[in-house]
Queue: 4 jobs
Job 1
Amino acid sequence: MTGMCSNLKPLHGSVREIVLISTLSILITVGKLTLASIPNIEVVSFLFITYAVVVGFKRTMLISIVFTTTEILIWGFGIWTFGYYMFWPLLVVIASVLDTKIKRTIGWAIVSGLFGLSFGLLFAIYSAPLTGVNVFAYWMSGISFDVIHMIGNFVVMLVLFNPIKSVLERQIQKWNINKI
């Protein structure tokens, strides 16, 4: 027996897709909840980038929608809701565009770090018309958290990208799933 699942029949296309997208979505949610007590240290950016590189743009875009919807089910509807529906897909687009251009982990760590730094600015731009607060003042009030977010994203990507990417690629290959 080559593995615990070696006796299982292969999943058919649509069922396989549902299982894959559900599993990868819940990993982001569990990762986020696990680290929730540490301000702005998260694996969400890391996982979205890794998923975009391994399973492709279309699947990762669906995963971002499932993740954001799950966040709403857990935390309720808030001012951040539409921002998540915009900013996580933006990261997926960025990672997908850079996929063939970035060859080394340090490149992905820089992208992830810069996204962490810019996350607060994106929310400031998004929130200002809704709250009436000045964009610059809003962003500056949280810049220390954005710097922590940048450093955390950089380190998480630098340490985890290669090992998690390798594990994910092996599992995807076992399931005979192509990148889309």
Note: Residues 10 and 174 are 10 Å apart (CA to CA).
Job 2
Amino acid sequence: MLLNNMFILWVRIFNDVGVGIFRLRRLNITPANDIDFITMYNFFRLTICLLLSIFIISCASTSPPVGDDIVEKSADYKYTAWQINDSKTYEAINALLEQADVLIKNKNVNAAEDKLERVLRIKPDYAPAWSRLSWLALQVNDPERALQMAKRSNSFAQSDVKLQTLNWSFIRAASQQLNDEETYLQADRKIEALKAF
């Protein structure tokens, strides 16, 4: 809507200035250096068209599709879907996850993966650990592994909408790196469907 209004404004300015130039021509008012008003009018039209083209091009979005901001490459990687469970049954898992967090902040990805895999040896169906492994795979440019880990996490996160949404965003990012348009669109649809919950 804003772009449409801007276009209408440019057309009105263009017409007003053009009409003004022709009125000056009819009145035989010419500048001291005797520039031809028709040439000036054509130059003005060309300039306006170039400026309008630059404006439209600059308005075009070059950012990723909406929702890709879920997957960030920053060191502050913790997502609310990965919140640590406070119950006593998860004491060992929580300790390993905290150690993995420290290792990730120190950019020691391999050791962090080892800690997460130890979590999965304790509780193989712990979906947040699979999700973190997916995120780590994206960080080291391993989209195939990221895709597998996110799908595995989703298979265990059936009632956790936040975690599923996060995993589908990882799947979308991985499929974009793999140039797999079909999986990308499927992930996009799933994310939109999960937003309803």
Note: The CA atoms of residues 80 and 162 lie 8 Å apart.
Job 3
Amino acid sequence: MGARVVMKKNMGWLSVMLWLLPVASLWAGSIEVVDPWVREAPPAMQTLSAYMEIRNTGTMGKTVVGASSPMFAKVEFHESMQRAGVSTMVARDSLVIDAGSKVTLKPGGYHLMLIAPQGPRPLRAGDKVPLALHLSDGSQWVGEAEVRAVKGDTAADMHHHHAH
């Protein structure tokens, strides 16, 4: 009878550990993502932008080497910049976040470019977009970004932002 009790206790702990395993895979070590959001775009747009603050609360640098979403064919890192008065976007392979620092993805700077929406309808304000950030150490952050309407955005404004 004693062996049965021990086995049941061990099975209980095993069940808890197996239940926590998926949760652990969502944790990217010392990376925290704050306020992730996606800019609402006109229905015909084939690219949207996602923004957030990525904090490294650890003691070692982290490198975000990729991103993905089941709602888009492709997700890339881009940086918007001004060169000789002309807005340009440059694709980036990764984002390096030094220990104890942060990188802010925001309009006019670094952002995630969400390419070729895969959903049955255009995204609207209030919708949630699942996102994953993949780190060079094999860990990942998984979460959701809320779609937000931005005052002043019009179809012409969006074309201007993405045409360069």
Note: Residues 28-162 form a domain with the Immunoglobulin-like fold (CATH 2.60.40.1890).
Job 4
Amino acid sequence: MTPNVPRRAPGFSPGMFPVFLRPWLRRCRVDFNPKTPPPMVTVAVASVVAIVGSLAADAVLVKVGVSIFPKTRGYSHFQFADYSKLTIIGVLIACVGWPIVARISSQPKWLFLRAAIAVTLVLFLPDAAIWYLGQSATAVFVLIWMHVAIAVVTYLSLILLAPVRGRHVRR
């Protein structure tokens, strides 16, 4: 009977990184001691759900935003062709990131949630910039909520439809 010691991903360990990075890896729970990552089929299904759900959430938020703030009617960033491209690209990047996070951390949901929050906050910067350059504050407010909705829909789609398994990978 083999001991119940989880094995690390082959070729990787926190010890192979520079000393100054190791505390950050520990804080971020990057330990290369993964649980069984989600099958790629479930990641693909979750990705489709995340894209469709995010685009639907965006469309609803645009409708609500225009009804609450009528002056934003016709705003260029509220056009489906404008926001759909960026939404799809962002969601696909997150969907590629989920299986990677699942392979480098023993607590992938914890790490992925914090990464999603950090990325969403960074994505507020272009919104702040266009507001600073003179775009409507109410329109930018709706854009910010669109970013939040995309993050929530994508995160939930991935962790619920493409979950990691409870046991550590045996190699």
Note: The chain has one domain: 34-161.
